[in-house]
Amino acid sequence: MMIACKMHEISPPDATDFCFISASTYNKSQIIDMEQKICALLAFNLHIITSHHFANIYLRAHHVSGNGTERTVCSITYDDTMKYLVDYLLEIASLKYSFAKEPPSKVAAAAVYLARATLGIRDASAEDTPVGDSKHNSKGFFSRTLKYYSGYGEMDLEDLVFDLHAAHVKSEDESLHSVYDKYSKKFFNMVALRVPVEEEVLYEAFN
Questions:
Q1: Which CATH architecture has domain 51-206?
Q2: 83 to each of 11, 54, 55, 61, 187, how far by Cα in Å?
Q3: Are 51 and 77 in contact (CB under 8 A)?
Q4: Which of these, 32, 98, 132, 185, has the minimum number of CB atoms within 10 Å of its CB?
Q5: What span, in angstroms and rounded, lies between the C-alpha atoms of 207 and 196?
Q6: What ranges do the domains of the chain cover?
Q7: What is the pLDDT of residues 115-138, one digit of tens each?
Q8: Is the dihedral of CA 5, 80, 166, 54 positive or negative?
Q9: Which residues pair with 131 in a beta bridge?
Q10: Which residues pair with 135 in a beta bridge?
Q11: In angstroms, rounded to a whole number, what is the distance separating the alpha carbons of residues 22 and 25?
């Protein structure tokens, strides 16, 4: 508790306070000694990287997606609704064991892709872009900027996006209902109440 307080509280309690709440079961030196042992055992790796860290980066890339001259090219820009929807999808994923084996960066990229699809945000730089001697039409839900900053192409995310979409569709009827209830509130722009994108739309985008 003392380590956690030092990491998250502005004014963390002193070791003496923890002696008091433990009814003096442990003295101050014992608590400090155990703190040192725990930190040493963990090699001071007290923070883990989660998908939310990557999502914040991808959301900025989502906001500036474009051709360099027209910065706002999406039909819906980086706003609270997009952010809350990505957070909602990531919290849904955190309840599923199947997502735990995936890299957090990839889960975040899949959540951004699915959020854009749910909100109908396509790559608005949809003019034909020369690729070698051919023309490549970029009309998908994942912009070139997002591909660059995430390191993932659309095909890399396909399976994960469909898995996340299935979890999104079922979220209202899950036994663990707190995430759905949380994001149904007005404070979060009621993103949980948005109708999930149709599966056929995703199939069309990936094909």
A1: Orthogonal Bundle (1.10)
A2: 30, 12, 9, 12, 12
A3: no
A4: 132
A5: 19
A6: 2-41, 51-206
A7: 999 998 887 654 434 433 333 344
A8: negative
A9: 134
A10: 130
A11: 6
